[in-house]
Amino acid sequence: MAAKKKRRGVDTPTRERILDEVERLIVRKGVYGFILRDVAERLGLQVPAIYKHFTGRDDVLIELSRRFIDGLSRQFAPVQRADADPAVVLRSRLDELVDFHLHNPAYVRLSLIDFATPEGGMEYLTLASGGPLHENLHSGPLAIMHRNLAALLDAGRAAHQFRSVVHLDFYRVVKSVLLIRLVFPDDALLTGKPTAAQVAEVKTNLWDMAFRYLSPEICKTSKRTPQHR
Fold it and tell me: d(Cα 148, Cα 146) in Å, to the nearest integer?
């Protein structure tokens, strides 16, 4: 589970302080709502000091994205117990995914930028993860997350708790529902401090959607439904 961030002090290396401040600015102003001068002023630096550590603004954002990709790669961690209930484990892992997004609102905003700028702008998370999503399924920092999720869904299918699904389809559904839930119709969950009840509601809603999607009953209903031509 993602831990809450603490503001680091002046003894933190300058490179990390820059990334910390950019993360805070993204939460407040958006990915394109600040310039490096804003970062320098907040840290009591001159802009050239930032260029000692990064080649430019895009470089800063790619490095920040690598932080998020590292955290994302640890999602859907496997359980070592052979008798673990796949549905219980999956619900716990989805709760952790919600926590990861809520504790990293800058990641949410960077994700939306990536989706909105295919070949028309800088895709920070895509660059940080080493390439397009289809490549990350088998190699790169996110491959382990996809393997873990696929194994968990396979375990649920073997236990007759889940229907057979393509793990990437499931991840697409979960990811899209969660991102939209956090930013629409407003982004109060990202900009404010959500209450425990609000967080619990997000987790419950995501699990309800996920479990309905995976339910074996969907297959039975589909077979009974007449096909219209």
Answer: 5
Q: What pLDDT, in 10s, does the model give residues 22-52?
A: 999 999 999 999 999 999 999 999 999 999 9
Superfamily of domain 58-215: Tetracycline Repressor, domain 2 (1.10.357.10)
> Model confidence over 168-189: pLDDT tens digits?
999 999 999 999 999 999 999 9
> What is the number of alpha carbons within 13 Å of residue 125 lying toward its C-beta?
23
Contact 207, 94 (CB under 8 A): yes
What torsion, rounded to 10 degrees, do the Cα atoms 18, 19, 21, 25 define?
130
The answer to whether 97 and 167 have CB atoms below 8 angstroms apart is no
Q: Do the domains spanning 8-54 and 58-215 agree at the CATH topology level? A: no
> For domain 8-54, is the CATH number 3.30.70.260?
no
Tokens matching residue 139 = 């190699």
Enter the pTM of the model. Answer: 0.87
Burial of 38 per CB tally in 10 Å (0-12, 13-18, 19+): middle
- The structure tokens listed for 212 are 């309905």
Quote the CA–CA distance of 98 and 209 in Å, as a whole number: 14
The letter for the amino acid at 44 is: G
Q: In the chain, where are the structural domains located?
A: 8-54, 58-215
Find, among 68, 69, 70, 92, the residue nearest to 79 by Cα.
92
Q: Are 168 and 146 in contact (CB under 8 A)?
A: yes
